[in-house]
Design a protein that fits this description.
Layout lengths: L13 H4 L5 H4 L7 E5 L3 E5 L3 E14 L6 E8 L4 E8 L8 E14 L4 E6 L4 E11 L15
Antiparallel strand pairs: 1-8, 2-7, 3-6, 3-8, 4-5, 4-7
């Protein structure tokens, strides 16, 4: 049996209301962005679970080396094991000196409860600059930049 009744469909999702925030806005650097500079040490950068946007610059001057040596790296640590997620090493070279520089690398890291992100460089001449900001919690709920409230 047919009816002459129109049944409206109401979409209550955020996409329908127009408040979806573009990724470039949601992942913007802001006042909550943290920065660490690492020289000749291992540093714990992040210990909170969730998704983290990470950006880094690495530079090393006058590498004197005839063997492969890890100069800098970022790694996950769960107190039982480590997982390298970024690394730069010196290259076998017959020359006494060489200059190694690494530009920028940007990626997203997921940390479970109990995980931490750490950085390392092997000498005072090796500099690892790291910026990081949480972009989502462990359940994937987005974390907007400090002071940003989408309309």
């Amino acid at each position: 049996m047919a009816q002459n009744v129109i049944v409206p469909i109401i979409d209550l999702t955020s996409a329908a209301e127009g408040s979806t925030v573009g990724q470039n806005l949601q992942t913007a650097w802001g006042f909550e962005t943290a920065h660490s500079q690492i020289n000749n040490t291992t540093t714990t950068l992040i210990q909170n679970s969730g998704f983290w946007q990470v950006d880094l610059n690495y530079s090393d001057e006058n590498v004197i080396n005839n063997a492969v040596t890890i100069l800098g790296r970022l790694f996950l640590d769960d107190t039982v094991s480590e997982k390298t997620i970024w690394q730069i090493s010196s290259v076998n070279s017959a020359s006494a000196t060489e200059s190694a520089k690494f530009g920028s690398n940007k990626f997203v890291v997921f940390l479970r409860a109990g995980d931490s992100l750490k950085g390392f460089t092997d000498s005072t001449r090796s500099t690892l600059d790291v910026w990081y900001r949480q972009i989502a919690d462990v359940n994937g709920v987005l974390v907007n930049p400090l002071g940003f409230n989408p309309q």
